[in-house]
Amino acid sequence: MAKLALRDIRKTYHAEEIIKGVSLDIEDGEFVVFVGPSGCGKSTLLRMIAGLEEISAGDLLIDGARMNDVEPAKRGLAMVFQSYALYPHMNVYQNMEFGLKLAGMPEAERRRKITEVATTLQLDAYLKHKPGQLSGGQRQRVAIGRAIVRNPKVFLFDEPLSNLDAALRGQMRVELATLHRRLGATTIYVTHDQIEAMTMADKIVVLQKGVVEQVGSPLELYHHPRNLFVARFIGSPPMNFLSVRIVGSGPDGLTVETSQGARIDVPVLAESAVAGSDLTLGVRPEHIVIDAQGTVPGTIRLVERLGALTLLHVALEDGSVLIVQTDGDHGGQVDAPVRLTLLSENCHLFDAKGMALTKLMRHRLAG
Amino acid sequence: METTLSPPKGKKGRTGAALFLSPAVLILLVWSLIPLALTLWYSFQNYNLVDPTLSGFAGLDNYRYLLTDPDFVWALLNTVLLVLGVLVISVGGGVLLAVLYDQDFLGRGIARILVISPFFVMPTVSALVWKNLMLHPIYGVYSAMMRAVGLTPIDWLQHYPMQTVMMIVAWEWLPFAVLILLTAVQSLDHEQKEAARMDGAGPVARFRYIILPHLSRAITVVIMIETIYLLTIFAEIWVTTSGGPGVASTNLAFLIYARALLQFDVGGASAGGVIAIVIANVIAAFLVRAVARNLEA
C-alpha cells in the first residue's frame, strides 16, 4: 500500500518539453485514471512513474521516498502493458514466475502464490498454455496475474483494454473494478476512453499537451469542468457550445444573450464579468429540452435513435448545431422545426481564456 | 467466367495447376536430375580424361578407392571443421553484434552499412584481398602491424591454412548472420523488454531469457542457410591455399574438384560427388526437421 506524490515532474525530449510540470498526490488505495487525447503525455507520465522513462526534472515520491533514480523493479510497482507484453516462449505459469524467480523467491512459495492468483483469475486450467494459445481476454488476465503475484504497492495500467472488442472491454472493466476493490491497492490507469475513466476512477486526471487540466472525481469533472478543454473532453455526446454576450448581472448570476436574442440566466459568480463582453456558453445534450415555449428555435438535421434515448442534431438559425438528448420515444423527424429550452442551472459559462466561471451551486454528487 | 476466380477444385483444377507448374518442374528436371543421373552413372565407370584405355563398368571400385583414401577422411574432417567453425563464429558474433547494433548510438546507420558490406564482396575477391592485402607475410597489413610492435609476421595461410580459410569465410558470412539477426532483434516488442525490466531483469537476464529465445527462430534459419552454403565452400580455398599445404585445407568440394580436374579421374570425382550429395541431404533433412519444429512452436 502506498502513497504517491509527483512534484513538478517534467520530461524533455530533444529540447522539447513533453511533460510540463505535473504535480499530483495519489492517496493510498486510490484508483487514479490519467485521461486525455493521444499525445497528451499520459503514457509518458505513467512510464516515468514506472521508471521506464527518465524524469528530466522534479521529484517522484513513493511513500515519501524519492524514486527518481531507483530501478523500475525496485520501486515496488507492477505494470500491465497495452500489448500485454507476455513472454511468448514461456507458458502462463512461467510468465507469472519470471519476476518472482529473478527476485530470488523460493520455488515452493512461488508455486503457492501463482496457484493462488491463477485461481482467482480463473487461469488455473491454462497454466501450461503459451500466450499464443490464449484469447485476448485470457492474455489480459495473465498480464494482470503477472502484476498481482509480485504483490506491488502500486499497479500501473497502460491502456490495458484497448486491444479488446467492445463486449470484452465492458466485462474486463467490471473485473478490474472488482479486483481493485478486493486488493485495495493504489492504482494508476491510463486510458483515452472516457467511459473507462468515468466508471472506474476515484480520481480522474485530465491531461493535455503535458499539462494537467483538471483533477477531480468523475462527477466533479462532469458537472464542474474547470475549462473548455475538460468540458469538451468529458461527456459523450459532447457538450454543446454557443457564443453569448453578457447583458446583465446580479446576485443570482449572469444574464447572457445568444446571437439570436434568446436570454438565459446562468447561476455563476459574476466576478469580473463586464456587461457586453463575449463568453462561451456550454450545455450538455441532456440539459436541453424540446419545449413549445422554448426561446431557441431550430430545425432537426439528424435523428440518432439509440433505443433508450434519442439524439437530435438541431441546427440553429446561425448555422451552429446543438445535440439534444431526449427520450427514446421522441418522434422528432428530420427537417421538422423545434423550439428548445436550455436548462439554465446546468449551463456553464467560459470566459475568453476558456476558463469556467464558478457556479453558485455545487452539484450534490460532485463532492 | 466467374469459375476462374474460385479456388481449384477436384481433378480439373489439379490438371490446370499441373499444367502451369510444368515449366518450372521441367527446368528443375533438366538442371538437377540429369546432372545427378550422369554423376551417378560416372561414379560406377572407369573414366579418366587422360587415360582412354581405362573404360567400362567399375562396380564399387571408385567408392572403395575414395573411402579408403586418407585424403578423403581429411577432406571430410575439414568440411565439418569449416562448417562448424564458421557457424560458431558467425552466429555467436552475429547475435552479439545484432544486440549491439540495436542500441542507439551516433553514426549507427553508417556502422550498420559497414558491418553488412562484406557480404556483398564476391568470395574470390575477398579471398584475394585477405591473402594479398591483409595476411601476406611481407606486404600484408597484419604483418606490418606485427612488425610495428616488434613481432615476427606469421605466414598465416602456410601455418594455419584451415583456420585462416575459416576466418575468411566467417568474415564473409558474419554480415549475413548480423543482417538476419538484427532484423529479428528489432522485431522484438519493446514492451516485452520493458516488462522484463519491471520484473527485475538486468541486461544479462534480459538477453538470456527474452532476447535469445526470441532469436531462436532466426538463429535456426541462419544455421540452415549457412550450412547449405558452407558445405560447398570452394572459391576461398582455391584462391588462397589450393587445398594445401598437402590436403591441410582441402574440403569435400575441393577434393572433388582436384580429383576431376587436377587428376582427371572423373569416375572417382563422381563417387565423391555422390557421397557429398548423400551427406548434404542427410544434414538438410535434420535441419529442415529442426527448423520445422522451431517454426511451429
UniProtKB/TrEMBL annotation, chain A:
Give the molecular function GO annotations. ABC-type maltose transporter activity; ATP binding; ATP hydrolysis activity
**Alphabetized UniProt keyword annotations:** ATP-binding, Nucleotide-binding, Transport
Q: Which CDD domains match?
A: ABC_MalK_N
Naming one, the record's GO cellular component terms include: maltose transport complex
Question: Per the record's keyword annotation, is DNA repair included, yes or no?
Answer: no
The ABC transporter domain extends over 4-234
Xref: SMART domains: AAA
An example of a Pfam family matching this protein is TOBE_2
The protein's matches in PANTHER family, at most eight in alphabetical order, are given as:
MALTODEXTRIN IMPORT ATP-BINDING PROTEIN MSMX, MALTOSE_MALTODEXTRIN IMPORT ATP-BINDING PROTEIN MALK
Q: Which family does it belong to?
A: Belongs to the ABC transporter superfamily.
Question: What NCBIfam families does the record tag this protein with?
Answer: PRK11650.1
This chain's protein is named Maltose ABC transporter ATP-binding protein
Q: Which organism is it from?
A: Swaminathania salitolerans
TrEMBL record, chain B:
The record describes its membrane topology as: Multi-pass membrane protein
| CDD domains recorded | TM_PBP2
Q: Which family does it belong to?
A: Belongs to the binding-protein-dependent transport system permease family.
Q: Where in the cell is it found?
A: Cell membrane
Q: Which GO terms describe its cellular component?
A: plasma membrane
Is this entry keyworded Transmembrane helix?
Answer: yes
One GO term under biological process is: transmembrane transport
Please report the name of this protein according to its UniProt entry: Sugar ABC transporter permease
